[in-house]
Specification:
FAD/NAD(P)-binding domain, five-stranded parallel sheet, single chain, Enolase-like, domain 1, about 475 residues, seven-stranded mixed sheet, alpha/beta, 3 domains
Amino acid sequence: MDKEYDVVIIGAGSGGYIAAIRAGQLGLSVACIESNPYAAPDGQPRPGGTCLNVGCIPSKALLASSHLYEQVVHHTAEHGISTGDATIDVNKMVDRKDGVVTKMAKGIEYLFKKNKVDFIKARARFAGTQGETYDLELSSEGRSQRIGARHVIIATGSKPRQLPGTRIDNMIVCDNAGALDFREVPKHLCVIGAGVIGLELGSVWRRLGADVTLLDAMPDFLPGCDTAVSKEMLKLMSSQGMKFELGAAIGDIALNGAGARISYRDHAGASKELTCDKVIVAIGRVPSTDGLDLDAIGLELDQRGYVPVDERCRTALPKVFAIGDVVRGPMLAHKAEEEAIMVAEIIAGQAGHVNYNAIPSIIYTSPEAAWVGKTAQELAREGRAFKSGQFPFSANGRALGHGESQGFVKVLADAQSDLVLGVHIVSPLASEMIGEAAMALEFSASSEDIARICHAHPTLYEAIREAALAVDKRALNI
């Protein structure tokens, strides 16, 4: 055995690298192992995982660029600003996105060094145990070594769910990674999957001029959202020109010259075809545990491929933990980070925890949608009596001044105790506003607590206070 560590983390994504840094801060000897180079120019594995390399960060960079372009082309005139004919250099936009990713990846490697974390660029697999130590074999470029771990954190993340019978070539038929590297705007883009990833990627290219159609197998739009949010988002996305076919059963995707022909059945069972020059398959993600050889230590996956864990992310094996997309719960980078901190602190003898009821979710379209806690339909299914207050941004001075007054804030509170149970926001800056709501849930605030807090004026987040006031039918500005 070449070296032994207190903690070895397999995977350097959002959960893995945060676990490594926190464990290093706590004085533990740490190694973090990564095998995926993603799109690194040197072809070497790099940290950050899906989120940094082919997910959250690059998509937000493209969303920012495409939003700015759309504002210049379509929305400056109302402010009295004449811009002439604006053009978009897609290559430069994509290169900027790549630059953001590279900068952040280098930042993570710096943090590893700062916190004395050994970043090992290799593929890891379990090779058994030696007493209370787990034996890991690492392979890279034809060479192998063995290291020991007194604790192991599995943080191998997820991979795109495959559409049966469809080959992803990332030329015409793309997954979420390929969709980030288009070098020209497609004329007609088809997105299979109208969830968060599909909406965000479809928004990027719709803003730049693509004709975008989204096909989704579910009969309802964004079924996990509060119904008020899903209805509002469908209305707003449709008004922007995005086309939706819900309840669509995808049949065959046939390449047709420089494009593709998609055969499907609509919600009524009628056969239809759609021709496009690019296809994005965004039908969700599945846990990634390939090549770990979990059998070598007797660890079994559940029926859906997840690593079974308890509320503290412990597996059935002593001193083996799993976090992030590879375990139950929402596949969110910030959820993985919270689990990472919790596990590192538990290993160090502290009392880490995660409040899974206060993890926010966000869709980064324009406007954005963000929510935390329960939806109205969840509370109704539970039989819990609740009150609801809602306030529109059409009555918010800051939103009107920005020319972006779509959406609302909705607050749900317990009918008896007034405890805040959920907050739902549709707004251009919902992602930045949801933090107040998450804090309210974390500290068990009532809607009255929010209503009694002085909110600066004029601001968008005043709408949260107004919605809290509306819970007791005493909003001041509607």
